[in-house]
Amino acid sequence: MTEGNSIGIAVVGVAGRMGQMLAQAVLETPGTHLSGAAVLAGHPWVGRDLGEAMGGPALGVIVEDDPLEVFARSQAVLDFTTPAATVDFSVLAAQARLVHVIGTTGLEREDLEKIAAAGRHAVVVRAGNMSVGVNLLTVMTRRIAAVLGPEYDIEVVEMHHRAKVDAPSGTALMLGEAAAAGRRVNLADVTEAGRHGITGARAEGAIGFASLRGGDVVGEHEVIFAGPGERVVIGHIATDRMLFARGAVRAAIWGQDRPPGQYTMIDVLGLRDPAAEVPDR
């Protein structure tokens, strides 16, 4: 449902740290309202007011365990959950013709194929990172990779908090895809990760990944182009997770009245170069 011209945005997985930030971002954004909040069946938050469950004043939004009911009164859904849950939500979002904003990482090829099928019926905005700065970094990575030849070795280095469960991060893979696109190669064919022991010399044209974990690091990414006599280094440091949440809300608003299809934050931010595709994972 709408409230005047306000866009109804739902949040799934709302009890998680990121879910709560997404809900807060919706509440802070003019022209939107929190149309629903969902968690898994059996969660202790079910039936409670979301604001009180989060330790604050009541918001008048009751936490539910039936996403279909929540989707029925929404125009968009923000989803930073798990791969299996996201695939299920993509089917429901497509049926309801919602804008499905996906920040879930760790998606496998078969998950992406199912999400692509949903994108034939509804707007799907999926990105490994929703921040403006990281998406600018992605565009820069593709352009630099296109200019520098294979004699420049590419390494993507990322660091996150100790509790992160997947590696490389979705953002690192997004940057790797951009570098591969700049060189017009398939990332899967040139990826080099997990070095240990006697590995032999680095293969020319490889795109390497290094994943660091520790403390409460929100997210740090660096792309290194190491060539003869010089290195070109570009990067991004996130210090506040709310920037990802605000980007997701921006994507939900942007997706209204768009034709069905798969989009990325590159599209949302108007950074798409029509002459060169920038893949996003």
Automatic annotation (TrEMBL):
Gene assigned in the entry: dapB
One BP term from GO: lysine biosynthetic process via diaminopimelate
CDD domains given in the database record: DHDPR_N
Function: Catalyzes the conversion of 4-hydroxy-tetrahydrodipicolinate (HTPA) to tetrahydrodipicolinate.
Family to which the UniProt record says this protein belongs: Belongs to the DapB family.
Listed GO MF terms: 4-hydroxy-tetrahydrodipicolinate reductase; NAD binding; NADP binding; oxidoreductase activity, acting on CH or CH2 groups, NAD or NADP as acceptor
HAMAP family: DapB (MF_00102)
Record domain Dihydrodipicolinate reductase N-terminal: where: 8-130
PROSITE patterns: DAPB (PS01298)
InterPro entries: DapB_C, DapB_N, DapB_N_CS, DHDPR_bac, NAD(P)-bd_dom_sf
Residues that, per the record, bind NAD(+): 13-18, 103-105, 127-130
Statement: the UniProt record of this protein carries the keyword Oxidoreductase: yes
Keywords: Amino-acid biosynthesis, Cytoplasm, Diaminopimelate biosynthesis, Lysine biosynthesis, NAD, NADP, Oxidoreductase
Enzyme Commission numbers on file: 1.17.1.8
Organism of origin: Amaricoccus macauensis
Superkingdom of the source species: Bacteria
Catalysed reaction equations from the record: (S)-2,3,4,5-tetrahydrodipicolinate + NADP(+) + H2O = (2S,4S)-4-hydroxy-2,3,4,5-tetrahydrodipicolinate + NADPH + H(+); (S)-2,3,4,5-tetrahydrodipicolinate + NAD(+) + H2O = (2S,4S)-4-hydroxy-2,3,4,5-tetrahydrodipicolinate + NADH + H(+)
Pathway: Amino-acid biosynthesis; L-lysine biosynthesis via DAP pathway; (S)-tetrahydrodipicolinate from L-aspartate: step 4/4
One term under GO cellular component: cytosol
Compartments, as annotated in UniProt: Cytoplasm
This protein's name: 4-hydroxy-tetrahydrodipicolinate reductase
Residues of the Dihydrodipicolinate reductase C-terminal domain: 133-269
Gene3D superfamilies: Dihydrodipicolinate Reductase, domain 2, NAD(P)-binding Rossmann-like Domain
Catalytic residues (positions): 160 (proton donor/acceptor), 164 (proton donor)
Quaternary structure note: Homotetramer.
Ligand binding ((S)-2,3,4,5-tetrahydrodipicolinate): 161, 170-171
